[in-house]
Amino acid sequence: MAPQFLDAWPPSFAEPVRYPLFGGGKRIRPALTLGAYQSIYGYDTDPSPALPAAAAVEMIHTYSLVHDDLPALDNDDERRGRPTVHIAFGEPCAILVGDTLLTQAFSVLAQAPLSAEVRIELVAALSDAAGYRGMIGGQVADVGLGGPVETLDTLTRLHTLKTGALIEASTLMGALVAQAQPDQRRALRAYGASVGLAFQLADDLLDADEDAGEAGPPSFVKLLGPAATRSEAHRYADQAIAAASELPHPALLQALARYTVDRTV
Ligand code: GRG
To answer: Separation of 188 CA from ligand 1 center, angstroms?
Structure first.
């Protein structure tokens, strides 16, 4: 495991870094990484080889929330029922907290007690999913820098990148640590891609009231209405459950797919 980066100098910075990391997130992405690993080896196997990958993906997710809440992007004052990082600690600090989590995530992967080959595969998978070909590409489209997003196709594409890429990487990284066979990797990627969209559609249903007057791309609820959004979310969850059924131990992943659409937060 990487050295304790929270022990670095100046010590006062550790508190704002810890604040969003230990602030009540659902930890769905790390659960998917561990679930993917156990889908290959079963539930009696210690999943700790997958913990660095699980931690790294949660660090990337947390950085994205901290930066997305900043005044230049979503300008949110509250997250998970608490002041956002820039409200609690100031904007310069929030920028640096996000930068720290983004960079340190790759240090965690690079120093994980895994073979060099697996560590390189993990770094490639996570950097692609977090970058222009993934989450950042989706965010670029979301803030309007990529042209209008008005149709179901472009909206699906946006969320496949913005939310889906990191969720797909969560399951892919579990597969990489498990050194899963190519067909198992394909099944885990297909599972992750479907769960990503199911998760986003469910999120739009949960946020339907907040989104009603917001600028930017429409939500799925605005475009399809609540009933069709709910049935699409379940269709993607069912697709994920079917993809997982090709794996030796699918039960945890199947329960997580169901959770993404049945959750209330
Ligand atoms: C890099 C600035 C920047 C942004 C990237 C992912 C993203 C784009 C922004 C985050 C804001 C957002 C609403 C993204 C949609 C994905 C989503 C539903 C995030 C919330 O994930 P949860 O519900 O969060 O897993 P918790 O609080 O449980 O960790």
So the answer is: 21
Identify the band that residue 214 occupies on the pLDDT scale cut at 50, 70 and 90.
confident
Please give the C-alpha separations between residue 108 and each of 1, 105, 130, 212, in angstroms, as whole numbers: 7, 5, 15, 39
- To test the ligand 1 pocket, which listed residue (74, 99, 203, 204) has its Cβ within 8 A of the most ligand atoms? 203
Local confidence band at 215 (pLDDT 50, 70, 90 cut-offs): confident
Q: Ligand 1 centroid vs 238 CA: distance in angstroms?
A: 23
- Ligand 1: residues within 6 Å at CB? 25-26, 28, 64-65, 67-68, 73, 80, 135-136, 139, 162-163, 203
For residue 98, the number of C-alpha atoms closer than 13 Å in the C-beta half-sphere is 18
pLDDT digits (tens, 9 = 90+) for 140-196: 999 999 999 999 999 999 999 999 999 999 999 999 999 999 999 999 999 999 999
Close Cβ partners of 135 (under 8 Å, ≥ 6 residues apart) = 60, 64, 129, 161, 162, 163, 165, 166
